[in-house]
Amino acid sequence: MRKLPTLLLFGALATQLGNTNCGQALRDPGYDLWCSDESGGSYYLCAWKVERGDIKRVPTWHEGDSGVELVGTDAAIAQLSPVDSADGQCRDVDGKSECTSPDNVCLEFSLLANIDDNAVVDLNMDIFNDGTIENTQRLPIGKWQTLSYKVVIGQPFAGIRFELAKSGTGTAQLANIGAHLADNCDGLPVIEPGPAPLGAPCADASDCVSGICANGESPVPFPGVAGFLQPVKVCVGCSPEQNCSGGTICGVGDATSPVRAQETVCVVPAAKQLGESCFWFNECASNYCTGGVCSTCKDNTQCGGGEQCGEGWDTVFSAWVCNPNGGARQSGEPCVSHADCASGVCNGTERMQCEDGRECVTAAQCPFKEGLKNGPCTTVGIQGGSCQ
Amino acid sequence: MWKALLALACLSSLLGTAHAEEPIATYAIVVGSNTGGPGQTDLRYAEDDARKVGALLVELGGYKSDQVDVVVHPTPEQLRAHINALADKLNADLAAGRPSRVFFYYSGHARATALDLGSDELLLVELRQRLFQLPAKLTVVVLDACQSGAFSRVKGAQPAADFSFNSRQQLDATGVAVLASSSGSELSQESEQLKGSYFTHHLLVGMRGASDTNKDGLVTVDEAYRYAYNQTLLATAETAVGGQHVSFEADLKGHGEVPLSYPRAATSSIELPATLEGKTLVEDKRAHSVVAETYKAKGAAVRIAVAPGDYTVMVRQGTTLSRCEVSGGGVVDLGKCSKEELVTTTTKGGGFTRPYRVEIQLVLGAERKDGYTDTLEAFGYKAKFLGATTGLYVSGLRRLTKYFWVGGIVSDEATDEWTRDTDGLYPLRFKWAMTTLAAAGRAETAFAEDGFFSTIKVYSQLGLGLGIGRTTLHDQDDMTTKDSYLGPALSLGAGFLFGGDDHNYILKGTAFSLGYQFEYAPVIENLIGDTHAVGGHRLSAALSYSF
Q: What is the pTM of this model?
């Protein structure tokens, strides 16, 4: 049953190579997605995250066409792009798509900037979204200048966080920022991604901060890269061959970025509750890890009274339980949904997860889908529950 | 008018042979004054008209040159002095038992109560009193001035009560006759083409023989009046001011015709044959001046006395103009005249047969690129279909000369939308339009004077005015923002015009034109400081109607 995630992964790979939206690497290039709070009072950018300071919606060439002003002496907005090192490697040749191996990626940024003398604005690129700024472009001072930069990023990588950061007391207004795959980057220096964090794609151990590059054991959010790398390799923090210390075992850690796989780290054995992600059975308190999820059974032999072992949630990554949704579980028995219990109540923590099974609170934690938008984060059932 | 004609008929029968059969002293005071009074525009030809009248009196009127006192631009006091001097001569003649006749002519500004002699005026009451008190047997007064008909009205001159008996041989008629160029309320008009006033011109043409209806070689006041009345009214009917009615009043006693001129005495004359019909113009080739302009009716020959010299006689019949060269007088032979088709025919009033034109024009072209559109592109907007602009122009033109028109234009133009896609919201859509109010001048000329190519013209046009720019932006939430701007607008155009005037392509007066147009109206601005000059290169097609 542990093969299911991998099969799903390759199914996804067959339909998608690369992870951009028709070559675009950023959402909302015109800063048009101004959302308002529930009261409708204040506006904020829907596609960009305000990391520091404040922002203000301002008119640009026309009062009806808005840009964004970075307000304060230290302000920054950022957007995480799912662009990866496989983007741009497939092209139409005589009507057929031909793909080459992952290579350096040529990206072009363009934006309009209105920056006065007392402001300093930088365009920062954080490859892997790990907090390390690999490249910075200082935007020149000027009134609504059209600016354009080309950069070449070495492979493999997945995900870049673009940050526009302003310091100083002057005014800095931005509009129409875009990033897209480009050609003609010959001769430009290659920006090598820093050592990859856990869950990032890798070719060999030297790519990884952890020094371990292993086959992917959980769904990866960079199908473009995965499409070229068979088997898929990601940086991991441990492996069964490299024993964890202190009585821990090598298992599934938290999902830290929508552009990286769930981390593989040393975890406390038998600590995970029903419904949590797992690699190995001994990670789970129930001692069953079925389909990458801590379960109460892996087949019918664990169920008595002719009950069937099946998925308790209506999703790909589900906990497996005996007689799912049968309303047969008695008080105190484990459950993953209210329908499992005779009482109709399954006490436990609501499980919210992305489509790849990772736990989430908001959609921003889920891997990207069409249109450079994060996939949904939905409630699937109860995690670690017991019937009332 | 019938009263005037009745008086004239009687007067003519009573006094007609005075020149031929009785020694009579003749005197004339001919006055011209171009200068207008307060609020009046100076006249251009009043003094010239006076000189022409004086010359014709000597040439054909039986006056000796020392009997014709041409007074130009006098003050009231000077005019009084001339009249007093004449009175002295008349008294002397009276004392010598010699009858006398006086001809008084005035061309200049006037109002209903006075002659305007520059900044001063001479009351009509006084003038009338002075003239009527002259000890002459007969006084003929001719006034070519606005509201000159009021001269008679100031003291109730009326037709004589009894002119029923008829004796053309008796010469004992006394009294006054007043011929005025307009009624008491009308304006008298000058013609640039005739280089004189309509009335004086036709009076002189009549005195040259055109009004000699009985062909006796003598033009009487009666004949001159009838002719001048009809020709002046015809000539002025199509002018902007309107028809001008020559008036006549008389207070006469006695019998006989009142001769004004003796064309038969001329050494040279041009005869328009009986078969000739049409508007006829006689031009003195040496002086480049119009000697006579008349409508010649078919049926009787007309003889026009002229000074010896070379003349061009032009006869218009429909759209055909016959041009005849006559040297030293003679009969106009139409068969030997050159003929041409008229492209643009002038009227007697100095205007044109179709002086007004309305035109509807469609334009299409790419919108001008500049910093403003560069900014639009920088902000991600793309123009639909090359950013083409379409527009509608409506213009009204008035013809000033054969080649030049002036008028006004109202136009409206709109660009295709510029759009920018958004990430899942409504696309931003931006467009602009401009309404222009402009004054326009157009020059046009035909490729040929006659034939097919006379129906094809080349034109160029300049328009200057005010542009009212309007922009509309639909944003990502489908909210609409509209702005308006004002600025100067310029348009330059050139092209070809087919038809127009009396050419009958579809309907007389209609024309179709194709051309090129360049427009420039720096009107629309953005917040960055760019100004868009609305316009660019256009193709234009227009349909016009002249009337």
A: 0.59
